[in-house]
Amino acid sequence: MNSGTAKLGSLEDSTALLQSHVLAISEAIARTRQEIAEIREEQDAGRTRDELNAVVRGTEQATDTILTASETVDALAGGIARRAGDDATRDDALAIQAQMQTIFEACNFQDLTGQRIAKVVRTIVLVEERVAEMMRLWSGSTSPSQSAAERRQGEDSLLNGPALPGDAAVSQDAVDAMFP
User: Hey, is 72 helix, strand or coil?
Assistant: First the structure.
């Protein structure tokens, strides 16, 4: 066997190995999605991204509320410290301001948390897109596969969890129709 044939055989072996690994990853993703669907009855990766983004926005709003209230308390404590006639009251007001600084510092978690969640979402999306594209190419399909939301039928299509901002509102008649 010449070296060209050996290299070709090695390339074919590597390609087959890569295909088997990507297939294994794809199957693991499919199994994981199925397990999650059984637990939460939720398979749509787009919805999961939206849920994580809603967590970031909710945390951001809560942090803004905490910071606004903390700034108000800090300003009030500063006013008390300036107007205080006795040292004990002034010292208490200054202690309150020092604790407010601790709260301000602790609220920095929100920005870091949001960045970390966004990074995880981007990574998940990238992996899913790449694996799905490889599977589509290897299967010879020319169109993307049906989404999880499109696969759900009957009552399963109604199980979407809490509404996200921008989701269509469900009428009371629709809710009543679900109960006999």
Answer: helix
Quick: pLDDT tens for 46-105.
Answer: 677 778 878 888 888 888 888 899 999 999 999 999 999 999 999 999 999 999 999 988
CA–CA distances in Å: residue 70 to residues 40, 88, 106, 115, 170: 37, 22, 12, 23, 37
Q: What DSSP element (H or E) covers 60?
A: helix 45-83
- Give the closest residue to 99 by CA, choosing from 61, 73, 81, 79: 73
Q: Scanning the structure block, which residue is given the tokens 């709003």?
A: 61
Tokens of 11: 């390339």
pLDDT at 42: 44
3-state secondary structure labels for all residues of 77-143: HHHHHHHCCCHHHHHHHHHHHHHHHHHHHHCCHHHHHHHHHHHHHHHHHHHHHHHHHHHHHHHCCCC
CB–CB of 9/126 below 8 Å?
no
